[in-house]
């Protein structure tokens, strides 16, 4: 059976695409799937350091597309999570060394060998984006609850629609306390603006930076709220029927009192 | 802590409501942007159709998207040189 190819994209940079890709990929592997994560950000690779595999790179995706090596030579096996593989980006090339047709050929081969292939798209909507979406069967759009990320997400959603992909949205770095104070767009606000299906909500979590500091998979930290949110997203992608969890705001004594008196 | 109380009395609006409103407007506005290729193709098609009925001055015509606060309009401006004699126009 052929595997699924999921592109993770956002338009805007710095909204958590790489963390999301690494976490969802790892979680899908923990569910027993054979997973390949592909870093499509040629020239600015980062998935390798986020996943803690930077010391083991021999070949990269450009080598694979240019037929300088086989897929199994470029795919780095994660030693902590079974069935998880990373195909890193090249750091020395520029995005235009890959063509959509070249990527398509490799993607076809990847589908035959993995249950899930996850493409981490670079920021922007140029060639790197084209290369990342060309073979995708599913698409995830990541955005944070701020005006620039939402606007860019809208643009990317339009481009995915025109390629007959029906993307789902992950709202990342939600801060429930700020949402409660009306300082931050809620996931409902974002969904209303973008009119798109929700894949999941990920709360702001200090653990993310700590995990990337050490290159350990976020989904293995049981106390990480973001990590567990990504696990649930992966389970739903994998067909499990579990509800979307909305990050809760712990109400303090004061807010309970003020609510009672109608001050909020 | 007292922010709820303060907001209540200062009548300050929630900033996220403004963010949402601004986003909704800008997304509509973004989609009204027409690129030059589309505009040129459209102009060519319009000229072809109009030329079946009128002889027009192809040099001095103009096609543009006019935007106001509330409405956007496509404005096509052309001097008519001649009305073409009625022929059997195949529909």
Spatial shape of chain B? rod-shaped
Strand order of the largest sheet of chain B: 1-4
Our measurement of the CA-to-CA distance between the termini of chain A, rounded to an integer number of angstroms, reads 54 Å
Number of domains of chain A: 1
Task: Estimate the mean pLDDT confidence of chain A.
Answer: 94
Tell me what the structure shows.
The complex is a heterodimer of chains A (264) and B (91). By secondary structure, chain A is α/β, with parallel strands linked by helices. Chain A has one domain: P-loop containing nucleotide triphosphate hydrolases (Rossmann fold, 3-Layer(aba) Sandwich). Chain A is built from twelve helices and eight strands. An eight-stranded mixed beta sheet of chain A has the order 3-4-2-5-1-6-7-8, sandwiched between helices. The radius of gyration of chain A is 19 Å and the shape is globular. The mean pLDDT of chain A is 94. Chain B is an alpha+beta fold. Chain B has one domain. In chain B, 45% of the residues lie in helices and 21% in strands. Chain B has a two-stranded antiparallel sheet. In chain B, strands 2-3 form a two-stranded antiparallel sheet. Chain B is rod-shaped. The interface between A and B is medium-sized, with 23 and 18 residues.
Short synopsis of the structure:
The complex is a heterodimer of chains A (264) and B (91). Chain A is of the alpha/beta class and 264 residues long.
Secondary-structure map with pairings?
The complex is a heterodimer of chains A (264) and B (91).
Chain A: E1 4-9, H1 17-30, E2 35-39, H2 47-50, H3 61-65, H4 71-74, E3 76-77, E4 84-87, H5 100-113, E5 116-120, H6 127-133, E6 138-143, H7 147-161, E7 168-174, H8 176-181, H9 187-194, E8 197-203, H10 207-214, H11 225-237, H12 253-260
Parallel strand pairs in A: 1-5, 1-6, 2-4, 2-5, 6-7, 7-8
Antiparallel strand pairs in A: 3-4
Helix pairs in contact in A: 1-11, 5-6
Chain B: H1 3-10, H2 15-31, H3 36-51, E1 54-56, E2 62-67, E3 72-77, E4 80-83
Antiparallel strand pairs in B: 1-4, 2-3
